[in-house]
Amino acid sequence: MVPPVKAIDSERMRGNFSSHAKDYDSYASVQKRVVELLSGRLAAVALQPGPCLDIGTGTGALAAAMLNRVPGNQLVVMDIAHGMTRAAAGRLPAVSACDGDARQLPFANQAFACVVSSSVYQWVDCLPSAFAEVARVLRPGGSFGLALFGEKTLFELRSCHCRAVEDSETGRTSHVQNFPVLDEVADAILAAGLACDDISAGMEVEFHLDVPDLLRQLKQIGASNATADRPRGLASRRVMQSMIKFYEQQYRCESGLPASYEVIIAIASKSLR
After folding, report:
1. Rounded to whole angstroms, what are the CA distances from 166 to 1, 11, 142, 242?
2. Could you report how far apart the first and last alpha carbons of the chain are, in Å?
3. What is the DSSP string of 55-93?
4. What's the CA gap between 225 and 174, in Å, rounded?
5. Which residues are bridge partners to 265 per DSSP?
6. What domains are there in the chain, each with its CATH number?
7. Which pTM was predicted?
8. Taking all residues of the chain, what is their mean pLDDT, rounded to a whole number?
9. In the 8-state DSSP scheme, what is residue 222?
């Protein structure tokens, strides 16, 4: 069963990522790996010549990887967080950079031969309409390559938080954010009028010293819960202590505490007609 869509607080998300732009590259090890995975998949795609848009560029890692396929003066990077846009522009002075929202792209119809995006669309609350925006700005025959985090992401943290909240008997429910399932992503691509040429999911696992270490890393890249109806803070002190205890008991191994990320990668295209 697909979890209900939760509205995303875009202003909170913008502030979180913008304020942590300077720390992002030091902590975003999983996101860097996702860029490598998507870049590898895109290497097998015959891209049309012409401008390329990187949606949610962050500090520009994916855009930098695209420079061996697209001339810098034909590459446009965009992010909802101005701090990220500025960081990408500083890293890649040859590209064009602007602020913008993936839900309402600030570009003309059929402006791009290629659109790419990494670790962004899990923060978008309506994938069909967001992908329709991609279809709008793509030229006929253009390609769309994206990677995003799926429903199994941080399942260890999510399950332990749910258990801790239930045991607290406060009447609250866990507010850990839901991410999309693979079929939801595929259906949204098709609903946008694009062909889903390839889609798959795999797991990436990081190991941490303890739960506070994991939470610090998430905070340092700006990846806080962005749902509009979230309570303040992850939990009360009691719930936090219980969550840490359950996480340690259930998941501790020789390598440390695992944090798993489901990475969904899709390649889509727009019909020539």
Report:
1. 21, 30, 48, 10
2. 35
3. ET-TTTHHHHHHTTTS-GGGEEEEESSHHHHHHHHHH-T
4. 12
5. 147, 200
6. 10-269 (3.40.50.150)
7. 0.88
8. 88
9. T
Residue type, 175: H
* DSSP secondary structure letters along 173-192: ---PPP---HHHHHHHHHHT
Q: Per the structure block, which two tokens stand in for 20?
A: 């942590």
In the structure encoding, which two tokens stand for residue 79, read together? 């992010």
- Residue type, position 66, single letter: M
| pLDDT tens per residue, range 54-109 | 999 999 999 999 998 998 899 999 999 999 999 999 999 999 999 999 999 999 99
**Residue 260 β-bridge partners:** 205
Residue found under tokens 């969904």:
264
Q: Residue 207: which residues within 8 A CB-CB, separation 6 or more?
A: 253, 255, 256, 257, 258, 259
Amino acid at position 246, single letter:
F
Strands 257-269 and 195-208: antiparallel
pLDDT in tens, 195-244: 999 999 999 999 999 999 999 888 887 665 544 444 555 457 888 899 99
Question: Is the backbone of residue 161 left (phi > 0), alpha (psi -120 to 50) or beta?
Answer: alpha
- 196, amino acid identity: C
In this model, does residue 171 exceed pLDDT 80?
Answer: no
Residue 91 burial (CB count, 10 A): 17
